[in-house]
Specification:
By secondary structure, the chain is an alpha/beta fold. The protein is built from 9 helices and 10 strands.
Amino acid sequence: MDMLQLGSHIVSSRLLVGTGKYRDFDETRAAIDASGAQVVTVAIRRTNIGQDPNAPSLLDALPPDEFVMLPNSAGCFTADDAVRTLRLARELLDGHNLVKLEVLGDQETLFPNMPETLKAAETLVKDGFEVMVYCSDDPIQARMLEDMGCVAIMPLASLIGSGMGILNPWNLGIIIDRSRVPVIVDAGVGTASDAAIAMELGCDGVLMNTAIAAANDPVRMAGAMRSAVQAGRDAFLAGRMPKRLYAGSPSSPVGGVIGASK
């Protein structure tokens, strides 16, 4: 089976999904079941997983024994805040070390602050975390994060929540070509074709939240994303035909056809 390794975790689904922006936890669970995802992200600053014992917990809908939790530092704008948030997540999840690092640059674009991201990643790796890191599509900084010890590189396709799809496939292709760890497209996917394109380019997986949660029918869109990721992966492994300006030979051979000239 075509498995994906993320740190010490091995999964079969290459679609990773977020847990925010749904109507309620029931819809969250239904969409994630439809997606087939095994890895689910949790924004520690926005979602209760035990911080408030008097409020409903996401872990009741998505038990950690059924899913690989991926706590993230969404909403953090400094390295110190991100490190503090992910250390809290490790305590709440009984020593769970796989995390998604996000350090944002501003409230409007949610573009990553790369100097602070690099600083936080270095601290977290030294602290024993398995760090999957949201980053710009800069191949040099992606290599720096990999050399630092991050277990997955997660370049944005376009801005978080924009639904604009993959705006720079060339930079993404360089990162994929040079990386020795999984490359997961994170942010910007809007519909199933975006996910398929990411996988056809050679990405190891796709992470999304808004594209599913903000759809008119989140559960149906989750199923579409599941199919798109698998189709894109199969197409990548199969190897597409070369692109040509025009075909030098017909799709069907003419040799032996009645009336064909010799």
